[in-house]
Amino acid sequence: MIRNGFRAIATGAAVALFGLLAFGSAASADPYISMGDSTSTSSTNGGSSTYVDLLFGGFGTHPGFDETLGADEHIALAQAGQVLSGLKSQQLPTAISEINAADDTRAVTIAIGGNDALGGESCFGEATGCAAFQASYDDMVSQIRNALENDPGTEYFGLLSYYNPYKREGSGISLEDQQNVDRKLLGTNLQADQCAVETSTGLNDIAFQAGSAFGAVVADPYVAFLAGGNSFFADAIHANGLGNVALAESFLDPVGPFDCDPPPEPNCETDPSLCPVVEDRVAPRTTLVSLKRKGKRTVTFRFRSSEEGSFRCSIDGRAFSRCTSPKTLRGLKKGRHVFRVKAVDLAGNQDQTPVRRVFRIHR
User: Fold this and answer.
1) Using CA atoms, how far apart are residues 7 and 302, in angstroms rounded to an integer?
2) Which of 167, 264, 304, 346 keeps 20 to 30 A from 202, CA to CA?
3) How far is residue 307's CA from residue 317's CA, in Å, rounded to a whole number?
4) How confident is residue 28, by pLDDT bands cut at 50, 70 and 90?
């Protein structure tokens, strides 16, 4: 499993991420926005103080988002007992509005789904999967990502995958029931899948896959809570001070986003309506629409084809591989780079003159 620590994010984004400490005239705030359920409430809005307050203000030897990212305000939206549908109707509109209004949003964290997975949603842990919940979760993450794309600067965007609160001695829950909770969180294979699979059955599967799909890191405190056991809990479910430190540290040393291959596209074999009626021998034409820089070492290319089909991309002379538009390249080294992309139509014809773009990473 690839782990991108908070310091690695700092390296990748360089001064753009951690050096923005000047607030100007303060006409608009540069906020950290936290969303979620009872695991993520804040003393700033009348709730219990949790890891989100540690992330904003710092703890121990860890400086907070106020120092590292230049966040000058904590907009705490999490509510106890919240489920995904409630977050989308009550917290998400406010978050989008605040991102749009902010001079430069510095961080967004989301922790939601625990009450859905361990409460009323029966799909979790079942072989049939949770397609409807996953589509709604993806929509939430996509809306935040789209808002951040229109926000200046580089932002920290993190999702929480959940620990199993019952997998410890003295929880009062049988080993069988502890295993059932694991299936609700990790899926029937008991392993969080970072990339899209045919059927996602666990809450953490859905969080990891959304992070990979929309460029968010994922905090994964599961192993830390196994090690901490009862010392991390204030009650049967919620973290105490030590547990909240572990949660905050999991956001500072997150995993992902993972570079996943796009899911297989429908073809003539799986969908006869896609079969060409007349043999097509005309290759599509590829057009590069834009190159957008995000931070110091990340670039995003957008491109299109004259025909329906797919794309193949190459960076720095490597073999072409399947890709989609937009294509984001992260962690690029300093120096000259060459990006190439070519379209492939439904009949398999490839553009014989791939679009080529030379660009430089200066530092």
Assistant:
1) 29
2) 264
3) 25
4) low
Is the backbone of residue 278 left (phi > 0), alpha (psi -120 to 50) or beta?
A: beta
Rounded to the nearest 10 degrees, the angle between the axes of helix 203-214 and helix 175-186 is 20
Q: How many whole angstroms separate alpha carbon 198 and alpha carbon 256?
A: 20
Stretch 326-346: mean pLDDT: 95
Within a domain: residue 248? yes
Closest to 162 in 3D by CA, of 198, 214, 125: 125
Residue that has been written with the tokens 């961080």 in this structure: 107
Residues 66 and 171 in one domain: yes
Is residue 37 domain-shared with residue 140, that is, in the same domain? yes
Q: What is the CATH number of the domain that holds 89?
A: 3.40.50.1110
User: Same domain for 288 and 248?
Assistant: no
User: What residues make up the domain containing 205?
Assistant: 6-252
Tell me: pLDDT of 6 over 90: no
Best-predicted range by mean pLDDT among 115-124, 149-158, 262-271, 302-311? 302-311
Main-chain phi, psi angles of 204, to 5 degrees = -70, -30
Task: List phi, psi (to 5°) of 267.
Answer: -135, -175
Cα distance between residue 73 and residue 65, in whole Å: 10
**Cβ–Cβ contacts within 10 Å for residue 215, how many?**
20
- Cβ neighbours of 102 (radius 10 Å): 20
The two beta strands, 299-305 and 355-361, are: unpaired
In a domain, 276, yes or no: yes
User: Distance from first CA to last CA of the chain, Å, rounded?
Assistant: 27
Q: How many domains does the chain have?
A: 2
Q: Looking at the domain assignment, is residue 261 inside a domain?
A: no
Amino acid, single-letter form, for residue 196: A
Given 222, 252, 282, the domain boundary residue is 252
- Give burial (CB, 10 Å; 0-12/13-18/19+) of 62: middle
